[in-house]
Design a protein that fits this description.
Order of helices and strands of chain B: HHHHHHHHHHHEEHHHHH
CATH class of the largest domain in chain B: Mainly Alpha
Oligomer: heterodimer
Radius of gyration of chain A: 27 Å
Strand content of chain A: under 5%
Strand order of the largest sheet of chain B: 1-2
CATH topology of the largest domain in chain B: Cytochrome Bc1 Complex, Chain D, domain 2
Number of helices of chain B: 16
Distance between the termini of chain B: 76 Å
Largest sheet of chain B: 2 strands, antiparallel
CATH architecture of the largest domain in chain B: Orthogonal Bundle
Largest interface: A-B, 90 and 73 residues
Shape of chain B: elongated
CATH superfamily of the largest domain in chain B: Cytochrome c-like domain
Number of strands of chain B: 2
Number of domains of chain B: 4
Distance between the termini of chain A: 24 Å
Largest sheet of chain A: 2 strands, antiparallel
Structural class of chain A: mainly alpha
Strand content of chain B: under 5%
């Protein structure tokens, strides 16, 4: 045991040093940029200069523009050193000596360059280098946000219901209530058009979860039926109190009641669930991988930032100065806290289990998720600011506050979308881990266990994937409302073929998921009674995929450009097949068939004997295929979102004037995204081996039990 | 069959739900109800019939048994889609998806894969698992239609429009502004464009309207809806930010381009596809046309058709065309005389006679004096003398959308009387 502890300490300290360096770098870089000195190199990166430089570059004839006032945040003047007016101002400023940094002001530390105009990243170019680093960072970040959600659910399911655990489950239930409420609420908002549906869902479900959990803790309201009713009433009451509306509608009350009932039902079911040690083991194993991925998130984040600092220095400086509090205080604080909590969570697992403090560990897990989600929301601010900066633009740095620049029109929709997307990601990545471990295991008991893990991963992945189209829909709806031009660029212009590929990928995901269920059911007794009905489902899936993949036209822009075939347009009488109404019907069919098949699968598992560990060897490969496709899809959608800003870094505020300001072709993007996903999977394969397989092999050689230490009895 | 009543009840319930969904989302309730009830019945039937354990087959046997069925489906899809007017790419796509379906069903019926014999087996399979989707996605993204970034770069590098000088260059600049602001996404211009969310600005002949009106429609699109687009969705469809996005020179260039959208051979068309109509049958237009005809329209002060043709259709001047008589022939005083009677006058003839006048008669070339928008309205009204609106049993058919060649001919033949700018 001591030897293993020592070996675990090494990577911890290494990671901590690495992260501390990263944090140090981030904290010291961001705030320093605009305020070092007005005449220094870094000082020249303030927004005023950036804009002035852009103006110089783009239109030399507009001399009067160079004199226009800058948009300095907080009133500070970031004067451009190369402007003649800057020299005049310096002469007039009696206090100039206070800012004079000496000869360094005249000796430039770097050649004068514009974004991308000077250095070019070898081999890839600046755009692809940034693109690759950003996507890898997002993928690892999604892992460390998505998997903890999965892990906490599993840990709660696996924990014996001691008094401490029950206390912790109250908090976990509220967290679950918030997530569930948001998801059901959004679906209500989109499908039934309920104003503030998300808020109704959130408050109703969260408060129902809180109240019912408390009642359950004190052994009141003990059954699920009663909990659902009481939860529905309580949830409706709180939602009605908290949602800011002029008048209440019946659908809104119904939505609140349903959410409250779901919150009440789940709270009771979770509070009194029978603990199964498999869940505990699963959660613990995944957590080991999260630690490694956290390091890679930091590494790729650093890589992304460093590349941006050279390739797009003007833009990144502008962006940073738009968020002084976020980048100086908010982000580092959250980052540090999450690091601390994550490592405490990872390394306190066994000690807390052994000392019967499981409840505290669950609380840590919930706190970790809250911190992770806060970090996600915080960074979605700048991400959505780039796409939908608040209007009017001339008030961005005058009357608008930093909060206004965070809470853009698409901020919440992106938060929802990423939240649910990360849940899907977590599920499918667990599926990949299970597949690897199944393949690497020789012991039949291990194979049984990892077969079950694959089942759980697929279940969670599909469960989150079902509401995902609704989240995407609400995001794009906000984009359309902000500026329909962006929406049209995505749906019917240069990105229309990209979206067509998206449809194909989603259909592929659903098909693969159903094939996995089919393959899994072959190892369940009597499950074949469902096969003919499932085959009908597959026919429907193929039809739905065909409809989803029906474009209005087969050329890649809104109007045919030279070299395109202008006749490749659906006639007007058939155009309905390419409209949203048809796509929505197709999506509905995919989701419904998957749900029906899942019901068949669940019935089979309850009525027939399951041959765990005897899954068709095709099964694990399907799980890997789904993981690969999901992550490819995620990277693809990220590409679509970034490209939808067209030739703008910040839409209609900060123009991209680099040589790479155009949209890359579909083929080029396809190859590049594949490269990024391969890189991610190569690293992930190594991480899974290092995080789970290698310690297991080592412990097995030392004659120890491979599983985590069970929770102590009270 | 003992479960039949139960299945029927469930199917009826699902059908009712489908009907509700259809009503709520305005998606053909009977079809929704029928489809959902039918599928439920099918599911019910498949779940209750006796089943044998599935027969698994080897890959080649699987392929051989499925090919005939898929071939039949592919042939049906190919010819069926061709029959319904799908262009060839869609036909190829439908057939491709039948092959995809075959692959899925081959996987379903495939024999259980053998267990890996060793690590090398697993490694090979893993590589194949990663390579398969990679090749698939790369191939799909490479084979779908591509754009050339050079064209986008050329557009992006173009100097912005900052000055407006009426002329062909302004029209060309306006066209580019129309394209770059994605107006084609909702508005067709004759045959060009993608959807009918907004009016087809070509067949509506937006160019007939005044500059001020067109500007107002761009800057404040929700002030007045185009006829047929009064529904809630259409009212919110047109963005309101163009006033902020376009400078004055860009706006004027855009208007210049829109002013070219005219059709000298057909009456303007209103309404949302497929529920469209021409001005011939538009009650509102006929009322406005009456004002023009009777000299009461301020915008056409000095024009009074009734002075010669009579306010009630009885000509007030000898030789004036009598609009009450459907068998009146076209004038023989013009070189472009057509051998048709009034009831069969093509739109183009109405337009020509009014805008160009009739040689050696008091019928002046009004088109060189008054806005053609009002002349079309007056023509629509004139028809009511021999064909009153309340007696019509059917509307005039909406004319086919002019082709590119036809538009070129109008310009070449000088059919537009007034300059387009």
């Amino acid at each position: 045991m001591p030897s293993s502890n020592v070996s675990e300490q090494k990577p911890l300290s290494f990671k901590l040093i690495l992260l501390a360096l990263m944090v140090y770098g981030l904290v010291h870089l961001s705030p320093a940029i605009p305020w070092v000195s007005p005449s220094s190199f870094l000082g020249s990166l303030g927004p005023q200069t950036v804009l002035a430089e852009e103006e110089d570059e783009e239109d030399e004839e507009d001399d009067e523009d160079e004199e226009e006032d800058g948009e300095g945040d907080g009133g500070e003047e970031a004067e451009g050193e190369e402007g003649a007016e800057g020299e005049e101002a310096a002469e007039e400023d009696e206090n100039a000596y206070l800012y004079d940094i000496g000869p360094a002001a005249d000796i430039r530390p770097m050649p004068e360059i514009k974004d991308g105009g000077g250095y070019k990243f070898p081999g890839l170019g600046n755009r692809k280098a940034t693109w690759g680093a950003a996507q890898l960072h997002i993928l690892f970040a999604s892992f460390i946000l998505g998997c903890p959600m999965f892990v906490v659910i599993m840990e709660v399911m696996g924990a014996r219901r001691t008094q401490g655990v029950r206390k912790a489950v109250i908090l976990a239930n509220v967290f679950m209530g918030v997530l569930t409420g948001v998801i059901i609420g959004i679906i209500g908002e989109i499908i039934v058009d309920i104003h503030h549906g998300v808020l109704y869902g959130l408050w109703a479900c969260a408060f129902a979860a809180l109240i019912i959990s408390f009642l359950n803790y004190f052994h009141v309201c003990m059954n699920t039926k009663m909990s659902s009713i009481v939860g529905g009433v309580v949830g409706t009451f709180f939602a009605y109190l908290l949602v800011p509306i002029d008048h209440t509608t019946i659908p809104a009350i119904l939505l609140a009641f349903v959410n409250g009932a779901v919150g009440g039902f789940l709270s009771t079911a979770i509070m009194f669930a029978e603990a199964d040690y498999k869940f505990e083991r699963l959660a613990h194993e995944i957590t080991k991988v999260i630690g490694f991925c956290y390091s890679f998130t930091a590494l790729t984040g650093g890589l992304f930032l460093f590349i941006m600092m050279v390739a797009y220095k003007d833009f990144i400086s502008y962006l940073v100065t738009a968020y002084p509090i976020l980048f100086m205080i908010g982000y580092p604080t959250l980052f540090i806290l999450e690091t601390i909590v994550l490592y405490i969570y990872v390394y306190s697992w066994e000690p807390l289990n052994k000392t019967n403090r499981k409840g505290r560990h669950i609380v840590l897990g919930v706190v970790l998720n809250i911190l992770g989600l806060s970090l996600l929301c915080a960074l979605d601010g700048p991400a959505t600011f780039m796409q939908t900066p608040p209007k009017p633009y001339d008030a961005l740095f005058t009357t608008m506050t930093e909060w206004d620049r965070i809470a853009t029109m698409t901020w919440m929709p992106l938060n929802y979308h990423r939240l649910v997307g990360n849940g899907t990601f977590g599920g499918f990545m667990v599926g990949v881990i299970s597949a690897y471990m199944y393949l690497w295991s020789k012991d039949p008991k291990e194979k049984e266990y990892y077969d079950w893990v694959g089942y759980m991963g697929n279940f969670i992945g599909v469960l989150f994937m079902i509401p995902l189209p609704a989240m995407g829909y609400i995001f794009v709806r906000e984009i359309y409302q902000y500026d329909a031009t962006i929406g049209m660029y995505i749906m019917s212009d240069r990105e229309s073929m990209f979206m067509l590929v998206q449809g194909l990928l989603i259909a592929t995901m659903f098909t693969a998921s159903n094939v996995y269920m089919w393959v899994s059911m072959k190892r369940i007794e009597n499950a074949h009674r469902f096969f003919p009905a499932m085959k009908l489902g597959f026919v429907l899936i193929i039809i739905a995929a065909t409809i989803w993949f029906t474009p209005r036209r087969f050329f890649a822009t809104m109007l045919p450009e030279p070299g395109m075939n202008p006749d490749m347009v659906l006639p007007d009488n058939l155009a309905f097949l390419a409209l949203m109404v048809s796509k929505n019907t197709a999506a509905f069919a995919l989701v419904t068939v998957t749900l029906i098949n899942y019901i068949f699968y669940t019935i089979s598992t309850r009525t027939g004997k399951i041959g765990w560990g005897k899954i068709n060897p095709l099964g694990p490969y399907i799980l890997i295929f789904m993981g690969f496709t999901d992550i490819w899809l995620m990277s693809w959608m990220g590409t679509i979102r970034e490209l939808s800003r067209m030739n703008w870094h910040i839409y209609k505020v900060f123009k991209d004037v680099t040589p790479e300001k155009f949209a890359p072709t579909l083929a080029e993007s396809g190859v590049f995204v594949t490269g990024v996903v391969w890189t991610f999977f190569i690293v992930m394969t190594a991480i899974i081996w290092l995080g789970i397989k290698y310690p297991k092999t080592k412990k097995a050689k030392a004659g120890e039990t491979p599983a985590a230490a069970p929770q102590m009895a009270e | 069959m003992k479960n039949l009543p139960k299945i029927l009840i469930i199917a009826a319930g699902v059908g009712a739900f489908g009907y509700g969904v259809g009503v709520f989302f305005n998606m053909s309730p009977p079809i929704m109800a029928g489809a959902m009830a039918g599928l439920t019945l099918l599911y019910g039937f498949l779940l209750t019939k006796q089943h044998r354990a599935p027969k698994e087959k080897g890959f080649f046997k699987n392929v051989m048994t499925k090919i005939p069925g898929v071939a039949v489906i592919a042939v049906i899809l190919w010819f069926g889609s061709g029959h319904y007017g799908f262009p060839i790419w869609w036909q190829i796509k439908f057939v491709s998806f039948s092959v995809v379906g075959m692959i899925v069903f081959i996987i379903l019926d495939l024999k259980t894969m053998r267990v890996e014999k060793g690590a090398s087996d697993a490694i090979v399979r893993l590589i194949v698992t990663y390579a398969f989707p990679s090749i698939l996605f790369i191939t799909i993204t490479a084979q779908l239609p591509q754009f050339n970034p050079e064209h986008e770069l050329a557009k992006l590098n173009k100097k912005p429009v900052t000055t407006f000088v009426p002329g062909p260059e302004a029209i060309a600049a306006g066209r580019e502004i129309f394209e770059s602001n994605k107006c084609f996404n909702c508005h067709k211009v004759f045959w060009e464009g993608n959807s009918d969310r907004g009016p087809n600005l070509g067949t509506k002949q937006i160019g007939l309207y005044s500059v001020d009106y067109i500007k107002e429609q761009i800057l404040d699109p929700r002030k007045k809806q185009s006829p047929g687009f009064e529904d809630k969705k259409s009212k919110k469809a047109m963005p309101t930010y163009y006033g902020e996005d376009l400078n004055e020179a860009e706006l004027l260039s855009l208007v210049s381009y829109l002013k070219t959208m005219r059709d000298p051979t057909h009456m303007p068309v209103e309404g949302k596809f497929p529920n469209q109509w021409t001005w011939w049958d538009d009650k509102q237009i006929l009322e406005e046309g009456k004002l023009v005809f009777e000299g009461k329209e301020p915008a056409t002060e000095g024009l009074n058709c009734a002075v010669c043709h009579g306010a009630d259709g009885i000509p007030m001047m000898t030789g004036a065309f009598d609009f009450r008589k459907p068998d009146n022939p076209d004038t023989d005083k013009m070189a472009d005389h057509m051998d048709v009677t009034l009831k069969d006058f093509p739109d183009e003839l109405y337009y020509r006679r009014v805008t160009r006048g009739v040689d050696n008669t008091p019928m002046a070339p009004w088109g060189s004096i008054f806005p053609h928008l009002y002349l079309w309205k007056a023509e629509a009204y004139a028809r009511t003398f021999h064909d009153p609106l309340d007696k019509r049993t059917e509307k005039k058919p909406v004319p086919p959308i002019p082709t590119k060649e036809e538009i070129e001919r109008w310009k070449k033949d000088g059919l537009f009387l007034d300059p387009l700018l």
